[in-house]
Amino acid sequence: MLSNLKPQAPDKILMLIEEFKADTRQGKIDLGVGVYKNPEGVTPVMRAVKAAEQKIWQDQTTKAYTALSGEAEYRNAMTRMVLGDAPADRLASLASVGGTGAIRQALELARLANPGVTVHVSDPTWPNHLSILKFMGLPFTEYRYFDAETRGVDFEAMKADISKAAKGDLVLLHGCCHNPTGANLSADQWDEIAAILEKSGAIPFIDLAYQGFGDGLEQDAAATRMIAQRLPEVLIAASCSKNFGIYRERTGILLALTENSAARDMTQGSMAFLNRQTFSFPPDHGARIVSTILTDDALAADWRAELEDVRKGMLELREQLASELRNLSGSDRFDFIAHHRGMFSRLGATPEQVQKLKTDAAIYMVGDSRLNIAGLNRDTVPVLARAIVEAGI
Ligand code: PLP
Ligand code: TYF
């Protein structure tokens, strides 16, 4: 049986990690996988996470099973973090295996409710969105998003394509910090998207993997909250991997806003069922870290302060890189780097130019010219800027 298996396409972002490790050159720079790194190149355990783990270690008296949907304390705390004052009578929630697990369960839920569901995704989007959709055999279509000229959003094209989504289709939107481009909608543009969805009856499915990495914890949730207020049905897949720095704990949540409380109860039951079919109880440790932090004023304040430092550090690097490139190139054509938000910016370089950066300068970024801003520090920004100009980008 197993000899019938065929090779699966590898994950190009994860392959870069191995390629980078194998490079023996001094001063090599890793701008590949989307993991936050401090100026020393370390992905730290956040202070509040350490403190929460200590508290859990001291206070926890059992490791018995929790609940299929995850602990209520975690789900309530995350609901508050993502949605603020959520319409609780319409809200179902499910602890998931990372943000990816929430995406998968959201798609499973949509398919359960509507077996022919079509999903609209941005062009480009996070490659795992596409690979999960293909694996599940769900029909999907891409809406135009990135303007290769300005490196911003091609909003007119996006609106035209999203207007084609039919009632009951899912429209997958990045809630903030678009991956891989770094280009995001303004608040007014979000309003226009909400109006289009209100009109068509297509259902927003928001992937929120970088809350707190863009304009701030509250600001990054603003679009999601506005959509949740306005649309009758909304799916939200949120990840705690980045903003709590607990990548390997696999902590995420699926939030589903339903039309009424009867639909909420049915949805909640279906979501618990989906967990049971997949892995039974969701992982608890990361979720408990998050709820311990969010329900303790001092820990929450310390976590928010550290997250703000992380966010501001990335913004400073953006400003520095844009300014170096302005000086070196004698033009403002790289200013988009300062306007982008989150960990990533898509440079708009050709695959050959990306390869040249790797070969000539030992600078690693994803083949589509996505770079991880957090892979830089004050000293490596000028190195990158020079290499970008030398590669003719
Ligand atoms: N969605 C996007 C756009 C992402 O970039 C990520 C990545 O890390 C995720 C979802 C899910 O992350 P995780 O499953 O590690 O929580
Ligand atoms: O886009 C990224 O780099 C992050 C991390 O299969 C990631 O989202 C990349 C690939 C993958 C899982 C996570």
From TrEMBL:
It comes from the Bacteria. InterPro entries: Aminotransferase_I/II_large (IPR004839), Asp_trans (IPR000796), PyrdxlP-dep_Trfase (IPR015424), PyrdxlP-dep_Trfase_major (IPR015421), PyrdxlP-dep_Trfase_small (IPR015422). Pfam families: Aminotran_1_2 (PF00155). One of its GO terms (molecular function) is L-tyrosine-2-oxoglutarate transaminase activity. Residues 28-388 form the Aminotransferase class I/classII large domain. GO terms for biological process: L-phenylalanine biosynthetic process from chorismate via phenylpyruvate. The keyword NAD does not apply. Its cofactor is pyridoxal 5'-phosphate. Gene3D superfamilies: Aspartate Aminotransferase, domain 1, Type I PLP-dependent aspartate aminotransferase-like (Major domain). Keywords: Aminotransferase, Pyridoxal phosphate, Transferase. SUPFAM superfamilies: PLP-dependent transferases. GO terms for cellular component: cytosol. The keyword Transferase applies. NCBIfam families: PRK09257.1. Belongs to the class-I pyridoxal-phosphate-dependent aminotransferase family. This is Aromatic amino acid aminotransferase apoenzyme. It comes from Paracoccus alcaliphilus.
